[in-house]
Amino acid sequence: MLPQIDPSQTIAWKQLTQHAERLKTQRIESLFAASPTRASDFSAKAGNVYFDYSKNLLDTVSRTALFDLARECQLPEAIASMRSGEAINETEQRAVLHTALRIPAPEVPKEASARDRHYNIHQVLEQMRVFSDSLRSGEWKGYSGKSITDVVNIGIGGSDLGPLMACEALSPYMGRINVHFVSNVDGAHLSRTLQKLNPETTFFLVASKTFTTQETMANAHSSRTWLLSSAVDEEHVARHFAALSTQSDLVESFGIPKSQMFAFWDWVGGRFSLWSAIGLSVCLAVGFDRFAEMLQGAHEVDRHFFEIPAEENVPLLMALVGIWNTNFLGCTTEAVLPYDQCLSRFPAYLQQAAMESNGKYLNRSGKPLTYTTSPVVWGEPGTNGQHSFYQLIHQGTQVVPCDFLLPARSQYPLVNHHPKLVSHCLAQSQALMRGKSTDEALRELLDAGMDPARAQSLANYRAFPGNRPSNTLIFPQLDPHHLGAILALYEHKIFVQGVIWNIFSFDQWGVELGKQLAGQILKDLENEVVSRLQDPSTAELLRIYGQFNLSSK
Ligand code: F6P
Fold this sequence. Notes:
The protein has about 550 residues and is an alpha/beta fold. The chain contains 22 helices and 11 strands. The strands form 2 sheets. It has a 6-stranded mixed beta sheet, sandwiched between helices. The site of 6-O-phosphono-beta-D-fructofuranose has 14 residues, from loops.
């Protein structure tokens, strides 16, 4: 059981509230002026990932109070509960053990349950290795005897976002198999993907923990029909489909033999399932060994999180800085800004990981919260974002804490490109912190020869408030190891925040109502009626929809 402590009633929370009042009148730059070693004092390393949080409106005393908050909320006890396999996902009565998926054999705990779990995990990993080797080498043949050239992962949410993001991130390691992802029930997604493919050389992975998700099953059935339109014989389905799931019976009734089911377990949450069989598309894209390196990178961060003291513990620091900005400085969103085009899907992946986990309004006793939980997470790779939404980050009315992610080396070393990218990344966090005063802006305009009256009228617009917080994560390069490490850092950040906010981070009941109502609306659409169950607005929209449909017939 996780502790049930209202963080807002702790001593630390009260102290933090006072610290925030005091610090709100200061500038981040003045904290640097007061402490020449601030840059290194407010940074920490997890393996080779360097986390700089010095550009936050946070000083040593307020940081100590954040550590106290974590202790008062019994974070160490909560970590122990997670690691020991307690059902800390209480509303679903499940353990939360995605970290077990990346434990190497010599480090598996001695208890029988951990040994059994590890045995099962490694059976599946071995199955993934053998299968991906066979498909990648061209040994696995489709129904007409040709080797497979394209793999389509059909899944949504955690069964899509993680592997899609990882395949993008690891594109420099891509082999000869093209991997595609279809998630949306909008027929456009599947149709546009299949348009380019040949059924003889296409293989489908149906990725679904529950094997009941409407979107995934609709896409899987349509793909099966597409395959059979040329393969004809139902027997051929087995040569072209595998399932990644926890539900063997449902997989078999779909027509996928047990031998082509890659299992995982209910203690792997959907949004934390990249490390399980759900990662098979990654193995097929970049090879099993690369996938194993990703697991190893994540495992090193797990060890760091479990073993390193709070002051040096990067995911803990990431979580506490986030809580500081959200709960004490009043920020309601967080931007994640990777300066690496290969991380283009990372913000989308993180949105699910953070917001499906911590977008909760009830505490662990089922009572409404009196404080804020997950900020809205969003972002785009730099430098693209600079030319779209950074205007708001620099001069908008709300303060948006930013995480900058920066690989030191590029995997695509085009002459002179990477230093440009790096310069932009570092300049953005500098600009956010420093800002520019109206006087500085005025001086620049006058120095550039502008007419004084015009310069006066423009100076305010060209000034920046600054004092806006950001973190920077620098790592050597975006290889499988460091990708695994970064993902694990964010996973643990999310866990810590959920513990402190006293919420259940591992369920997602908030996605259910829409699914339920869609069922009733679908019935109305199929029967061409507007039932009395619909509210007046929805009823009217259904009528308009019907009229459009009639007029297009
Ligand atoms: O509807 C939300 C959700 O349950 C996510 O939590 C999950 O990742 C996704 O749907 C897909 O679920 P499944 O893997 O069972 O198809």
